[in-house]
Amino acid sequence: MWGFLKPQRRGTLNLFSLYRTHVFCFDAVFYVRRTTQHQWRCDDVTFYCDNLGLCQHWIQTINDQLATQTNRPKSLLVYINPYGGKRDGKHIYDQKVAPLFCRACIATDVIVTERANHARDHLKTEANLDQYDGVVSVGGDGMFNEILHGLVARTQSEHGIDANRPDAHLAPCSLRIGIIPAGSTDCICFATVGTNDPVTSALHIIVGDSQPMDVSSVHHNDTFLRYSVSLLGYGFYADIQTDSERQRWLGPARYDLSGVKTFLSHNYYEGTVSFVTADDNVGDPRDKEQCRAGCRVCQRKTSLREPRHDDPSHAGKVNETWTDIHGKFIAINAANMSCACPRSPQGLSPAAHLADGTADLILVRKCSRLDFFKHLLRHTNKEDQVAPCQSFSARGTSPSPLAALAPPSR
Ligand SMILES: Nc1ncnc2c1ncn2[C@@H]1O[C@H](COP(=O)(O)OP(=O)(O)OP(=O)(O)O)[C@@H](O)[C@H]1O
Fold first, then answer.
1. pLDDT tens across 291-306, in order?
2. What share of the chain is helix, strand, coil (3-state, %, to 5)?
3. When comparing pLDDT for 169 and 307, which is higher?
């Protein structure tokens, strides 16, 4: 007879394991409990039984059910950036994440990076990727980007795709990337999971959650520069980023200092932005629902986009009509995702989809400091982020001053 009894002994149990006493067999089942603000926690239920055979049968049945879930990772390659955010990436991983991976029987190879681009270079050339189900980034957005670059570059070189061609269709990576937030803004984690919480992210990885993401490639004069999954910024945000790197010793507070400095300098840039509007775009920048795992728009778009990287004749799009906008701009932003983070819970483009094959182009023309301040202030609240600025869904830009955005591919 199964029943919930007061536990006689609680121990560190494997995800599904059997503990025996002389009187009862008992088995603790660990599960994910959803709490508030998109946070997940690990909880357990203990079942008791006085029939050992029945208990074993029950455990076997659960394990058989779990074995059918092939999306759960069994082996992961973990990169920890000990240098990002408040420099506590290693501590976060050891204290909050490793015990959960261990409990879920996930084997891990852990590399603590020793320099910038260590993870990228290791993934590009050395790592034996066949033995892993995924790669985990413990760090911030910069660390995620390193891993993205390593994995995407490796995949393209294995498929013989020339990444310097802006019209090349990139081959999708077979490995997934998990993010354990341990950086300063952790925008990519926040925009995909809804919170910056290492335990929640670890549990998403354990249960095999996944979300496709658009990747934009940035080129200059037919030379590949970099990939981007979040914000591609020219002007205001790029200036903050450049300046904040010089203040890294300040930790996450460096963004505040650089933000104020850049705002006060009130720089603007004159040039022409060219873009192609998305033809079958179903979303609108003012849509109320935020894109999350399982989004129907992204699922539909992903299924419509056939991978065509093996057919050179399909490279590039024909009949694209380019629109030019000339002017003086304070900020030129292409958002591949909402770019939400704790300071901007809605993000720069709240309704941007993670995998619909488009980027939201946000142009902020030269205006007074006061008007620009009002625009920035909206990022911190939940009100309409786009009015009265114009916002476009675009799939490309022309050369200078913005590097071209190739059609995003997964
Ligand atoms: N061992 C290391 N020493 C120095 N720099 C490193 C090391 N490992 C990684 N890096 C670099 O540190 C940079 C910043 O890391 P990360 O993104 O993790 O933190 P952050 O910049 O504080 O957070 P965020 O990007 O979310 O603002 C990355 O661009 C990465 O290339």
1. 876 777 787 776 666 5
2. 30, 25, 45
3. 169
Distance from the CA of 86 to the center of ligand 1, in angstroms? 11
Q: Report ipTM for this prediction.
A: 0.96
How many other CB atoms are there within 10 angstroms of residue 71's CB atom? 10
Cα 120–122–124 angle (5° rounding)?
Answer: 65
Interacting residues of 86 by C-beta distance below 8 A, sequence separation 6+: 251, 252
Which range among 8-17, 207-216, 219-228, 374-383 shows the weakest confidence by mean pLDDT?
8-17
pLDDT in tens, 185-204: 899 999 888 899 999 999 99
Q: Which domains occur in the chain, in start order?
A: 16-67 (no CATH), 75-206 (3.40.50.10330), 237-308+320-405 (2.60.200.40)
Pocket-forming residues, ligand 1, beta carbon under 6 Å: 81-85, 113-118, 139-143, 146, 183-186
Read off the amino acid at residue 210. S
Q: Output the residue whose Cα is nearest ligand 1's atom 9.
A: 116
Interval 58-75 mean pLDDT: 88
Residue 141 known to be catalytic? yes
Exactly one of 27, 44, 94, 141 is catalytic; name it: 141
Q: From CA 259, how far away is CA 26, in angstroms rounded?
A: 56
Which helix (H) or strand (E) is 213 found in, with range?
none
- What pTM was estimated for this model as a whole? 0.81
